[in-house]
Design goal:
The chain is an alpha/beta fold. It has a single domain, classed as Uracil-DNA glycosylase-like domain (Uracil-DNA Glycosylase, subunit E, 3-Layer(aba) Sandwich), CATH 3.40.470.10. It is built from ten helices and six strands, in the order αααββααβαβααββαα. The protein has a six-stranded mixed beta sheet, with helices on both faces.
């Protein structure tokens, strides 16, 4: 059985489980997915493109796998695709993306091509709502595998939702954790505000700039 056929079967079984069916030998789908996922980004993206593990696949136009330098030392992780991302199949391409690009260029003195960008969920939630716990925990197995393959030195989470679901945290207040250096699976994790929030709250941009200066300093130590 080839990889895509296997994951279509897993997706079908997961959907039946979600409507109440059970199996003689139950197992944890999320752990199974993580352990069995391909070890190359290209093959992993092929799996994501046919994924039906949660209901978001029914409303997406294009899954947004992620993009950037596959050997990046710095990885940005957002919440999920918006309307522009869903149309183009690329992360952070709307107004938030322009702000993120400007921050990368002006503060980090890097280009977008130097880093890797991904999201907690690969498909756009309807009306840009926050992903549910089931959606996030099902989809983040793909993100964990991306992190394993890319092996970044620093991860920057954008907004409270990305931090919450990446780290299994509850009651996250991004204003209280932003700018802190956190050990995450032997990597440095630095939370900051989501660009979409900064577009609405211009006064907070100064803090995001401080956070990225912290990131820049840590990268310079390499």
């Amino acid at each position: 059985m080839d990889e895509l056929t296997k994951y279509r079967l897993i997706s079908y079984l997961q959907k039946r489980k979600l409507v109440g069916e059970s199996y003689i030998m139950p197992f944890n789908f999320n752990n199974f997915i993580k352990d069995e996922l391909p070890t190359s980004l290209k093959n992993l993206e092929d799996v994501v493109r046919v994924c039906t593990m949660c209901e978001l696949y029914t409303v997406r136009k294009n899954p947004v796998f992620g993009e950037g330098n596959i050997n990046a030392k710095l990885m940005f992780i957002g919440e999920g695709p918006g309307a522009n991302e869903d149309e183009q199949g690329r992360p952070f391409v709307g107004r938030s993306g322009k702000m993120l690009n400007d921050m990368i260029t002006n503060v980090l003195k890097l280009s977008r091509e130097d880093i890797y960008i991904a999201n907690i969920v690969k498909c756009r939630p309807p009306l840009n709502r926050v992903p549910t716990k089931n959606e996030a925990y099902t989809c983040r197995q793909y993100l964990f595998k991306q992190i394993d393959i890319i092996n970044p030195y620093i991860i920057v989470t954008l907004g409270a939702t990305a931090y919450k679901y990446l780290t299994d945290s509850e009651d996250v207040q991004i204003s209280k954790i932003r700018g802190k250096i956190i050990n995450f699976n032997n990597r440095l994790l630095i939370p900051t505000f989501h660009p979409s929030y900064l577009l609405r709250s211009q006064s907070q941009k100064v803090y995001a700039l401080e956070d990225l200066k912290l990131v820049k300093g840590e990268l310079e130590k390499l």
